[in-house]
Design a protein that fits this description.
Two copies of one chain form a homodimer. By secondary structure, chain A is of the alpha+beta class. Helices cover about 45% and strands about 25% of the residues of chain A. In chain A, a hairpin with a 5-residue loop joins strand 3 and strand 4. The structure holds a DNA duplex. Chains A, B: InterPro entries: cNMP-bd_dom, cNMP-bd_dom_sf, RmlC-like_jellyroll.
DNA sequence: ATACTTTCTTAATCTAGGTTAAGTGCAAAA
DNA sequence: TTTTGCACTTAACCTAGATTAAGAAAGTAT
């Protein structure tokens, strides 16, 4: 059973025909590290589901500094939600940071599937609800925790990602400079 | 036409019967300033839609400091999403900060309405999508903008709220102390 | 293997924003 | 009407984390 179907069936159950229909509307592609799936200024046309590998989304702010928004590894979805739903150019980049096999679901097909399999409306609602809750928690953490505590939380939540992501990108995710991150890490190891 | 129905029909259209059914599952209540609608540790049973007045959600972190998550005025929804969907005790407070008339929709009725009016599944999906996008942007802003720039964005986005919310709560929302906010405001006025 | 590029580290210096403390103004109790 | 309490201000001092700069390590390409 494909990972993506397992993922969906965690929240809604599908008949064999529905599974087949769903899969027929998706496309599997492989990408090498450093591939850019989406550029800032482009319209995001697909949601990406990760079968293997790691992705990150980021933007580049005025200071020419990359700011990481999210990572996605096996079993996670990734897209520029703003651009995807508004159909306007977004400001996120999506990049492959570890060779990846992805399931591509175009926005067009996603909308089509909503009408053909209404249960999927529920599935994606739940998916986004969970994402919203996670973002709210991260927002509060960023406002009230120290960099050290945010790093600790990151380690607990994504223990398997730490070894697979360049350290400077973790630094960016938790919101500190690579230099400060390095210093902080050295301090933590000394304990 | 009730504000809440107008709000829903921005995204999906309802038949007169559906409108009536929807309204029959809600309840209108009035609350005075300082009423607590939800306490930390309680399970959030309702979504609140604001007909008039202002609400805020916040939590109290270890340092005994209130951290504002969100405000809601006319036409906005408010709930502790985490608690509402997980049915577990949350850590948010929801408080009335200006006398309010609210539409209450219990989680129970919301789930019931999902099955009776499947279109609502779409409505709430879209609502949450928009909320997610807003939270993502705020997260990125907190990671890459100065307090001054965050305040400026807040003023642009919620110009009508500024006069209605105690300044220390705006400070908390953008993530600075009341003292620093006061200093910053004085500096901005000098310009 | 060698050169080239990028990541990571260390350290000195700097600053946005926090902390502490004291005082002002004002609305609500009493 | 006084008192109490809260919201806001100002100012001195402090610190987490940024910036700058330079070198070390580790990939990557030639």
């Amino acid at each position: 059973m494909p990972l993506i179907i397992e993922n969906i069936e965690k929240h809604v159950s599908l008949t064999p025909e529905e599974k087949e229909l769903f899969l027929s509307k998706t496309e599997i592609k492989k990408y090498k590290t450093k591939s850019i799936l989406l550029n800032s200024g482009d319209i995001c046309e697909h949601s990406y589901f990760v079968n293997s590998g790691v992705l990150r989304s980021f933007n580049i702010n005025d200071n020419i500094v990359e700011q990481v928004l999210n990572f996605a590894s096996e079993g996670w979805w990734m897209a520029d939600m703003y651009s995807l739903i508004s159909k306007k150019p977004g400001n996120l980049f999506i990049e492959v940071i570890e060779d990846a096999e992805l399931v591509l679901l175009s926005k067009e097909n996603q909308d089509l599937l909503y009408t053909e399999i209404p249960k999927l409306e529920r599935f994606f609602r739940i998916l986004i609800e969970n994402s919203l809750v996670a973002h709210q928690e991260r927002l509060m953490d960023n406002l009230s925790l120290s960099a050290e505590d945010r790093f600790e939380k990151f380690c607990k939540r994504y223990p398997n990602l730490i070894q697979r992501i360049p350290q400077k990108q973790i630094a960016s995710y938790i919101g500190v400079t690579p230099e400060f991150f390095s210093k902080m890490k050295a301090k933590l190891l000394r304990k």
